[in-house]
Amino acid sequence: MEEKEFDNINVIPLVDIMLVLLTIVLVTATFISIKALPLKLPETKYTKELPQKRAIELTATKDGKIIYEDKEITLKDLEMLLSSLSEETPIVINIDRDSAVQNLVNLLDLLKKYHLSRISIKTIQK
């Protein structure tokens, strides 16, 4: 039996496979999003580092939305969450410094309703 000599290589199937892989990468890349909110934290001169315990983080945006675990939640959902927490659960509030004071007061009032007193407001140091 005689072996054939390779004179050329057909690269069209290889190009097809590469185009399909490129399409898959581009389609899946659009579903990946960065979980960052454009939030400007208040500045303080004198802050105290809190111990790194498992705390509930609530974020109040400039336009009054409340974010929990990277999802916007309604006040009704927030009340259900808060009612299920222990009074000793630490809560960290991230609030935009340009937010209305009333947004913070509403959130603190809701926390007080469920006797949650271990509350911290996240700030950045000047």
From TrEMBL:
Entry GO MF terms: transmembrane transporter activity
Cellular compartment(s): Cell membrane
Segments crossing the lipid bilayer: 12-34
A cellular component annotation (GO) from this entry: plasma membrane
Protein name: Biopolymer transporter ExbD
A biological process term (GO) from this entry: protein transport
Organism listed in the record: Caldimicrobium thiodismutans
Keyword Membrane: yes
Alphabetized UniProt keyword annotations: Cell membrane, Membrane, Protein transport, Transmembrane, Transmembrane helix, Transport
Primary site of residence: membrane
Protein topology in the membrane: Single-pass membrane protein; Single-pass type II membrane protein
Membership in a protein family: Belongs to the ExbD/TolR family.
Pfam assignment, any one: ExbD
